[in-house]
């Protein structure tokens, strides 16, 4: 397998009483054939023209019986097909030289049957000898006439081209002819019937369509598929044997062809010369493109010429002197064919059904293995099947109790159970979230900006001034009433989901700021120095640690005890945006300062990185330009042949300078690139610092807000539903759970439009979008007006 082989080329001479003994001579080894042309026998032959040729082939078959021909030519190919190797046997030669006789033989005479029926016999005989395998045989019979495809085994009465023309299709498995019937044959007899039917169709077609059967190519294909009867064997092999009876190879013009005959002749000669081109290309090791698609013949035989198959050519020639010219041309074709290398390989495939069955068996075995293991380790009750509703409900209850604090821990049983626990965490938390939301919704109402009736009512009640500002609101940006951080928008829902993800992930791993740890929150709210994580010794850049020094915080001197800083609780909490401003001037001032500082460092680094990138690109461009001119110089030098005798290159000054410049540029490029890499690492680190600061800031604010202002009874109730969650936690989750994109938008807003009030982001976003839309409409209207004028 995998070893290279050459195409086997044989020549068969048709018996004749008029054999040209003086012109055709065989070698003693039965492999060479010498042709001698007597100059006088041919008119117009120039004196110095070649008169002697010698061809060395794989065998010269003269006076050979059909039996011997089969033994020599086909037996091995067929036998190897049963082992998974594709095989192709082709007969080539001028009309009447014996191609059909060799391939099909005389159908009325058993002894004179050709390669085709013998191959079928051998296949079935070998199947009988291999009881270890289930082998199926299929056959098809294709005729190519004037570049049209005909199915010689079509079950319909043969009337010519079928309604849906057949097409040649290529897929990863190889070539197949769409529309060509392929017949399963379970015994020799069926196969023969099909062959005879095909032969009859060939003759009928020749008569009814008035076509010359010697002008068509016929391809009989035997498809073999062998599955081992041992079920554990997942591989099976496939192969096909192509038996090709080519059209006559004689040249046109000789017999003065006209009209239809000429057209036919042109087609045959074209397809045969394309076949020859393909074969020449196949014989040339340096060629990687083989022109298979030039005609139907080579396209249909694409995976059967050369490649991974065993290939044999029989060249049929006349022994008469009169045909010597054609004989020579046929022998030339044979010797070219002999140069083609093939690399026969077994066609192995995997039986998916068997693989599944084997895996199922393996799975059952492993389950039993687990059961044994469990009983040995005294865990006999564990099952590994998918959970039912009762089991899932039990896990749901465990998770609830765990969150309430009545269950200390949840025992691990198996992987499926762990997955379900996490799943139920998500379910329970989303339920609690919804409960909180609906509790708040009952307490507060969102006022729609355009709902004038409601606004009027609110104004009447003295909760909103005439300009639409909420009482106590600085800029009238927000129309939300009270502390509602929610909206019905689905976007919020998505964010809530993310919160749970974070929550469950924080359940799993310990983060620096686990939102679930009340202890941690206490620490944060009292000791502000922990806000900026201290640098790991030795792993930071100089620049980085300096930045950190400037941004690290001393406890502010003015920091006063909680009780003093807390304002008296008003009956209505102030709007959060406003409160946030206060918070930043009060308890949050230090965090806010650090946040801003880190942020400005981050922005500065980003700017530097972008500048460095630009420089790198500029250098790269210059390198390219320099290289180009250097190449030009080089080619110029090579053209002029400016080499010194001793092989030392002489470079002129210009080229030398270019080389120096290139070297320098490359150095610059490397150094800039190193800088950029360092900067990127620094940016990543700074980004993390900024994110942490933001989270702390918001969290601190929320705690402060809830501590400072009244939280209504029913909200507290709702919050208590998730008893493991501290009051104030849920809003924190909502704020902290800004997505990555949101964070960018968030920082933008913080720098420009928005007073640092994260709750109004959805609102602001909507507003910005509406404004854009209005702007667009205005522009359009303006344009229309202008147009009308
Ligand atoms: P082709 O297919 O090349 O046009 P055929 O196979 O039809 O040629 O052969 C033409 C005639 O010569 C047929 O009648 C065939 O029986 C006969 N013939 C060809 N080769 C042999 C052979 N080796 N022995 C006996 N008869 C042959
Ligand atoms: Mg023929």
From TrEMBL:
Protein's cellular compartments: Cytoplasm, Cytoskeleton, Flagellum axoneme
Ranges for domain Kinesin motor: 6-340
Entry annotated with the keyword ATP-binding: yes
Source species, domain of life: Eukaryota
Residue ranges that the Swiss-Prot or TrEMBL entry lists as coiled coil: 349-376, 659-696
A GO MF label: microtubule binding
Signal peptide start and end residues: none
Pfam families in alphabetical order: KIF9, Kinesin
GO terms under biological process: extracellular matrix disassembly; microtubule-based movement; organelle disassembly; regulation of flagellated sperm motility; regulation of podosome assembly
UniProt-annotated binding residues for ATP: 93-100
Predominant localisation class: cytoplasm
Region (Disordered): 529-583
The entry's keywords: ATP-binding, Cell projection, Cilium, Coiled coil, Cytoplasm, Cytoskeleton, Flagellum, Microtubule, Motor protein, Nucleotide-binding, Phosphoprotein
Amino acid composition bias (Pro residues), ranges on this chain: 568-577
GO CC terms of this entry: microtubule; podosome; sperm flagellum; vesicle
Ranges annotated as biased composition (Basic and acidic residues): 536-551
Entry function: Essential for normal male fertility and for progressive motility of spermatozoa.
Subunit organization: Interacts with HYDIN.
Protein family according to the UniProt entry: Belongs to the TRAFAC class myosin-kinesin ATPase superfamily. Kinesin family.
Protein name: Kinesin-like protein
Gene, per the UniProt record: KIF9
